[in-house]
Specification:
Length: 323
């Protein structure tokens, strides 16, 4: 069995709150102790409610954010504190596709300049002509025309802009890509096209993906395994089909019960699990199990102890129900 290309151990990302009341220092616990790993060529889907820390996790992995604690290992090397040349080499291998195709592209640069920029920074290829040829090749790979090279981002649709962003991501031939909700800002008709493009690229180049999204049906389609986050914590990890068809954690069960079913007869028979109460603040999360304030199965123990992930078959679930 091969070693994981990415291993995250007890990852924490906390942000200080400016102007905390009465001089008391407060922090937003955006990510509070994540553990997971991703294998070479695998797509790991990361799902959860808005504000649960999915995007923060992705940004910590690519070193946009600095982890507060824990360890991120890429190809067996701890990259948490790397700098200089080591960081530059890391960025060649780990790239990110951003959520907003409008904001992630410089409107003053042509498509050719946008895609070529990573190659210029990292001195990939010795001549400008070789870089131009690579840009045209990348445009064809993502389904755009080579003559788009001299156009500007405002001349393209949202789906085309996201394809430009994907081409820029591939410019350095990365081994690992964080896809931070790459389809959420696109029309439904375009989403499937972008997903198919990512799958084709993975098949040809052997790239590993961390795929962050809200759409659970789309995550199931593209992912080999799925991790479910709640309030900065990982509550369940398993094979995509297993998690989707027989969720174990009460939060995963509630999340999947909200997925629309196109067949009216099946939809009428499906039981919807409605969670009571509001999502707690990451500044002051509940003691013990962070889900206990909304969990229908919570006990006194849940308020006192934080459940550790346990193995249930080939799955990992953080819940006292499965001890």
């Amino acid at each position: 069995m091969s070693n994981p290309i990415l291993k995250v151990t007890d990852l924490k990302v906390h942000f200080p709150v400016a102007g905390s009341a009465f001089g008391k220092k407060q922090v937003v616990k955006a990510v509070d102790g994540l553990n997971f790993e991703i294998m070479p060529g695998e797509t790991f889907g990361l799902v959860g409610e808005s504000g649960c820390g999915k995007s923060t996790t992705g940004r910590a992995i690519v070193k946009i954010y600095t982890p507060t604690a824990g360890k991120v290992e890429f190809d067996g090397e701890d990259i948490t504190k790397i700098k200089g040349k080591e960081l530059s080499e890391f960025r060649k291998n780990v790239q990110m596709i951003f959520q907003d195709p409008y904001a992630s592209l410089n409107p003053r640069m042509t498509v050719g300049e946008i895609i070529r920029e990573p190659m210029d920074i990292h001195n990939i290829f010795s001549t400008k002509e070789e870089r131009e040829n690579r840009v045209r090749e990348l445009l064809e790979i993502v389904g755009l025309k080579p003559d788009h090279i001299r156009r500007y981002p405002h001349e393209f649709s949202g789906g085309q802009r996201q394809r430009i962003g994907i081409a820029r991501t591939l410019a350095l031939n990365p081994k690992f890509v964080v896809c931070d909700e790459p389809i959420s800002a696109l029309d439904v008709s375009i989403q499937a096209q972008v997903i198919n493009l990512l799958e084709n690229i993975q098949e040809k180049m052997g790239i590993s993906y961390l795929f962050i999204a809200h759409d659970l049906s789309m995550v199931k389609h593209i992912s080999d395994r799925i991790g479910v986050m709640y309030l900065g914590n990982m509550v369940e990890i398993g094979e995509a089909d297993d998690v989707y068809n027989s969720p174990l954690h009460p939060y995963t069960q509630a999340l999947l019960s909200a997925v629309p079913i196109p067949d009216p007869k099946v939809a009428r028979q499906k039981k919807r699990i409605v969670l009571e109460g509001e999502l707690p603040s990451p500044i002051d999360p509940p003691s013990g199990c962070v889900f206990r304030t909304r969990c229908p199965n919570a006990t006194e123990r849940c308020a006192k102890e934080k459940p550790q992930a346990v193995k249930v078959g080939n799955r990992s679930v953080a819940c006292f129900l499965y001890e």
